[in-house]
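Q: I'm writing up a methods section and want to include an example of the input and output format. Could you take the sequence below and give the corresponding predicted structure tokens, formatted cleanly so I can copy it straight into the document?
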Amino acid sequence: MNNEPSNITILGCTGSIGETTLGVMETLGVDRFQVIGLSAGQQLDKLISQALRWRPKFVSVAEERDEAYVRGALTENTKVISGENGLREIAAQNETDIVVNGLVGAVGLLPTLDALCAGKTVGMANKEPLVMAGGLILETARRHGGRILPLDSEPNAVWQCLQGHDEDSLKRIMLTASGGPFRGQTKDQMVAVTSKEALAHPTWQMGEKITVDSATLMNKGFEVIEASCLFSISIDQVDVVVHRESIVHSMVEFKDGSWLAHLGKTDMSLPIQYALTHPGRQATSLEALDLVKIGALHFEEPDLAEFPCLQLCYEVGRAGGCFPTALIAADEIAVQAFLEDRIGFLDIFEINSDVCDRLSSFDKDPSLEDVLDAYREARELAKSCVHELSRHRRR
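A: Here is the clean output for your methods example:
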């Protein structure tokens, strides 16, 4: 990073990625950053507190009805906007250098495309847009001079391992997974899983949606599709291994048989800091990783029979077209229904699989309009599946 302050916009500033990013910026030095925009959904008081601290030029809220409340708490130098248009507006602001996308779900697709169209660097923690429309996103970045930096721990680890290496030398990628809270359990044991149990992740503190996706291994499947897109390799060159200690965040194998692995603390501040400071590295306040104290690292194959969502992601990734979009849409509806106790834990896979089976056939190279149409269709199909399953549960 040069001596000039970096102008940053954070989408999803009140979530775990947004808060961690702001914390990293504090650690690195507030004089190194100028916050241009902040966006948030429901946590308005937290948003106001952040805006008073960082004095952004723009603040975007999800609902128009919240504009007046937020505007009244801030100075007149901060413009308050709302809705999808507000989110897209702050993502493409001329003054911004880096857009940190810490949003959850498909809502991050259009702001990501807008930021890349404006030639911005986008730090992506929001994997759903890349799963839905990775080809469109990469082409938009190439055409307009934008850049994508992975912020999630696993793709960020792969990115770090590949620094200084030619893409042609890469043989495969190994993504690690903690296995979630139900590792080793059978389907019979998971029939009665509650949302509280699913939200008790053994390693990471995350939002509800991504935590449930981690429990089903759907999140790891999304990362497989994301890695295939980001690093220009086939789905079948991305493997997953369960690594309970969560010390190795990802590994890469080169054509000569050599491996490089990224090891580090299970703290999202590390990949975010690397994205903000690369190619340089800065000291952190985290306790050093002590491999002697850890003693041993263990790896095992994921059980695809007990966690079929991961296998479904491979199948959808191979199919391509709009099927990954449909999976994203269906999973959003299914996970929300599970959190609301309208369906069971194992029903999440059944809904996702059913929607992908019922989706209309699409071109292998879909347009943005095709992607958005598939997203809407799949959400409606998923809602219908949830309705049927809910009726059976009430009987």
